[in-house]
Amino acid sequence: MAIKHLRKDIDAIDKEIVKLLNKRACWILEIGKMKNKTGEAVYAPAREKEVLSKIIRENQGPLNKETLTAIWREIMSASLAMEKPLVIAYMGPRTTFSHLAALKKFGASVSYLSCNTITDVFMEVEKDNADYGVIPIENSIEGAISHTLDMLVDSDLSICSQVMLDISHNLLSKHLKDAIVNIYSNPQVFGQCRLWLESNLPKADLIEVSSTTRAAQIAAKEPRSACIASLLAAKEYGLKVVAREIEDSPHNITRFLVVGKSQAQRTGRDKTSIMFSIKDRVGALHDMLLPFKKYGINLTKIESRPSKRKAWDYFFFVDLTGHIQDDKVKKALMALEDKCKFLKVLGSYPVTE
Ligand SMILES: O=C(O)C(=O)C[C@]1(C(=O)O)C=C[C@@H](O)C=C1
C-alpha cells in the first residue's frame, strides 16, 4: 500500500484516539470534582500503578512496555493537571537528574518549581507552595544521600511514591569531537566518566562547575567547549549529542522519593520506609530486627545516621516489603515500637522498577 493510503488510515485512527482521550478526560473531570469535594489527594500513585500494570498486561504489541508507560505517563499527567494545577518541587537547576526524575514521575502537563537545596524542596511542600517534592535518596554507586535522610527525621511529610532513574551522561557540544578543548561538568560526573574521557579526549581540559546545567550554559556559548550533561540539557541549550552514555559503569541508578502531605493506598506490591532509634545496650539492634523475622517481613535496606542529638546515638532507616495497612506490617511495627526509643513511619508506597 502506498504511504499516502497508510497515512489516511493513520489520520482516521488519530481522530478516534483524540475522541477516546477526550472521553477519558470527561471522566477525569468528574473524578476531580469528587476529590475536590472529599479532599482526597489528586495524585493517586496506587491507582497509577494499577492503570500501568493493566495496560502492560493487556498489550499485544508491537508497542513495547517502555513506550506504553511513557505514553500513559503523559495521559495521566494531563489528568493530574485537569484535576488540579499541581506543582512539583525538585532540587534544581532545570535539566539536572532531579528534574528528569520529577518529569518521569509526573509528566509534562504539571508545573515544576526548581529549588536550590533538598531542604528547600521540603519547605516548599510544607508551606503548600508545592503539592509534592521529588528528592534523591540513594545512588547505586555512591550510596545514601545523607541530607535527605536527615530531612526525613524532622519533616511531617510522607513518602508516597518512588522513582528509579538510570543515570547516564552525555558529551554535548556545538562542535565536533576533534575540535573540543574544554569540557565542563560537575566533579561527580567527571568521576563517573573518567575512563571514557581518558581514552577519547585525553588532552581536553576538564573544568569543574557547580552543576551540569551551568556546564551546558557555558558550552552553548564558549567556542571549542563541551559539557557532560543530560539529553534534556542538549535540547534546552541547543547542543548536539557528540557521544551518548559515556559513563564508566552502566549500572548507575538513582532512587528518588516523592514526598507530600497525602498517603499512597495499598497496591499489594508496596514498600514501607521507617526510622527508629534504639536504647544504648548490647544486642539492641539485633532485638529490633526480630519482629520482622517473626512476621516474615523482608527488609530491603538498612541505613544508619548519627542522630546529631547526642554523640554516638544513631537513627536507623529501614525499608521493608509491605504496606502499613498490611496486618503483618502493623503487628511487626507494634512489636518494634515497644523495643525502641523512637519510631516513625515515613510512608508506604508502590514498588516501581
Ligand atoms: O483515578 C484517579 O484517581 C485519577 O485521578 C485518574 C488518574 C488517571 O488518569 O487514570 C490520574 C491521576 C491519578 O494519579 C491516578 C489516575
UniProtKB/TrEMBL annotation:
Residues 87-261 form the Prephenate dehydratase domain. Pfam families: ACT (PF01842), CM_2 (PF01817), PDT (PF00800). Its EC number is 4.2.1.51, 5.4.99.5. Pathway: Metabolic intermediate biosynthesis; prephenate biosynthesis; prephenate from chorismate: step 1/1; Amino-acid biosynthesis; L-phenylalanine biosynthesis; phenylpyruvate from prephenate: step 1/1. Gene3D superfamilies: 3.30.70.260, Chorismate mutase, Periplasmic binding protein-like II. The keyword Transcription does not apply. The record marks T254 as: Essential for prephenate dehydratase activity. Residues 273-350 form the ACT domain. GO terms for biological process: chorismate metabolic process; L-phenylalanine biosynthetic process. InterPro entries: ACT-like_dom_sf, ACT_dom, Chor_mutase/pphenate_deHydtase, Chorismate_II_sf, CM_dom_sf, CM_II_prokaryot, G/b/e-P-prot_chorismate_mutase, Preph_deHydtase. It catalyses: prephenate + H(+) = 3-phenylpyruvate + CO2 + H2O; chorismate = prephenate. GO terms for molecular function: chorismate mutase activity; prephenate dehydratase activity. Keywords: Amino-acid biosynthesis, Aromatic amino acid biosynthesis, Cytoplasm, Isomerase, Lyase, Multifunctional enzyme, Phenylalanine biosynthesis. Its main location: cytoplasm. SUPFAM superfamilies: ACT-like, Chorismate mutase II, Periplasmic binding protein-like II. GO terms for cellular component: cytoplasm. Residues 1-87 form the Chorismate mutase domain. It is found in: Cytoplasm. PANTHER family: PREPHENATE DEHYDRATASE P PROTEIN, PREPHENATE DEHYDRATASE-RELATED. Catalyzes the Claisen rearrangement of chorismate to prephenate and the decarboxylation/dehydration of prephenate to phenylpyruvate. This is Bifunctional chorismate mutase/prephenate dehydratase.
